[in-house]
Structure formats: C-alpha cells, structure tokens
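Re: the request from the purification team.
They wanted to know what the chain is likely to look like in 3D before they choose a buffer screen. I agreed to run a prediction and write the result into the notebook, where they can find it.
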Amino acid sequence: MVGRGFLTWSLCLGALLLLYFGGQVNPVVYLVAGVLAPLPVILAGWRLGWGAAVLLALAAALCVFFLKPGLPVILDNLGFGNLLLMGVLIGCLRSRGLSPERVIIYTLMAVNLVALLFILGQAYWTGVTLQALLGQKGTDLVEALRRVLGGTGEGGSALLAPGPAQSQVEFWVQRLLPGLVIVNGGLTAWLNVVLSRQIAYFLGWGEAPPLYYWSAPEWLIFVLLGAGFLLLVPVVWVRIFSLNLLLVMGLCYFCQGVAVVAALFHRWSLPRLLRLLGYLLIFLNPFIFLIITLGLMDLWLDFRRLQQPGDA
C-alpha cells in the first residue's frame, strides 16, 4: 500500500511539473496550467491525506526554485505558488467534510487575502503607490493575455492589437482588476473541485455528490440588485465598485446555471460524451450569459425541484 501511495504521489508531482514546464514553452499549455495546476495537489490529498498534498506543493515549489535560485524566480512564479496554495486549501477543507460551496468560498477568501497582503507588502517595500502597482499588474495581465491569444493564431492576437483597442482594454482591466481576480480564482477553484470529485469517483476513491445540488444563497439576489442600482449613482468610484460586484455575482449565478444544466442532463439521461460537449459549450462567449440568466431564473422557477412544497 505504501508503494502504491508513493506511485500516486509521484504521478501527481510529474503531472504538476509537466503542466508548469509545458506552460513555459507553449501558451496553450500555460493557459491550461493556470486552471488545472491545483488538481494534482487535490487528488494527492484526496487519496493520501492533506499532509501528502502539502508535501507535493512544497516539492513542486522547490523543483521550480532550484532550477534558478533567487528572488526573481519567486516573483515570476507567484501565480503558480498561488495555485499550489489553492490546491492545498481545497484538499484540506474537503478532508474536513465541508460542503463544496464552503470549500470554494473559504479557499477563495484565503487565497485572495494572501495575494492582497503580498501586494501591500510589495507596494511598501518598493515605495510604489498601490494604485500604480495595480495599474502595472493590469498591464501585465493584458500582456499575458496577448501572449496566450497570440499562441492560438492570428485571430486571437488580433483581439489585442496595438492601438486604441489595447489602451481601452487596459483601462477597463485596471479598474475591474479586483473583480477579475475574484472571478478568476473562484472559477478556477470551482472547476478543480468539480473535476477532482469526478476523477476520484471514476477511480473508485469515494462517492461524489451530484453537481446539480449546487445552489447560491437566496439573499445574494439583493446584493445583485443593489449592485445594479449603484450603477445609477453619478460617482465614478461607486460605479467601478458596482461593476466589480456584478462580476462576482455573475460568477455565483453562472455556477448555479451550470448546476441547472447538469440536472437537465441527468433528467434526460444524456450519454457522457454529449454531456462533455455540452459542458464545454457553456464556457463559450454567447452561452455564458445564458447560463447566468438560467441560474437567476432558477431562483423563482426551481428547475431542479430542490424546494419542498412547504418551502415554495
């Protein structure tokens, strides 16, 4: 059993390093690694315990650091370290029996708190104002997106062509950076929780609760309505705050919309191949807003019949 455990741990470490080094040479792999890097850590923790997940994250971090020791390699790989931390937190919280919703919320809070503390520390030690630092990170985000899209072909690179279009993108990215960071982290955590549960179920490591039980708290609708009304306030920073809040609310109802789609797939008994294609389609641009709308409508129409007659 010890030998199998070490083999599982080694395979997870190999997958993690493959994602990292593959992302250094290929923009598409870089994009995949930015989403799935926590997955090997979560699976190692699921099978071997959260201590094995911590050791796996530390081993991957040390492998990256020893290739080129120094402060620059740490600063250049903070995003990768953040993903490793996310994997450890998800694995630890899952082992404590928390619901997937709480696992994602607590993980997102902890990861963003660590990122915020680092940004504040970086601004303090470098003597740069927080606004200037956030603006620089927004520019870096646009450049990273340019590299990823440029690696997918001319059509992708044209989306961020130099000129007024790029400056406009940078303008909005800098102002919506808090919301974009939360949405990106939340979506990444959600995907890894869902995928890890399905992989563990297929490998016979345990029973995975159905995805279609996911439900956002009903009181969030008042937050969404409040954010919408704040857009009417003729104050720039209030409108920026409301837009960031709307981004976060959109993520919540997107997850609920996906749960509704999963319930429909289950009710219709669709083959797994068609389900996989359907899940891939919902992440395309036209369908994202439809899924968010579906999640909102579920509050009143209760597509999944989760509410009991007495609660309706």
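For the purification team: The two ends are 50 Å apart (CA to CA).
Please add any questions underneath this entry.
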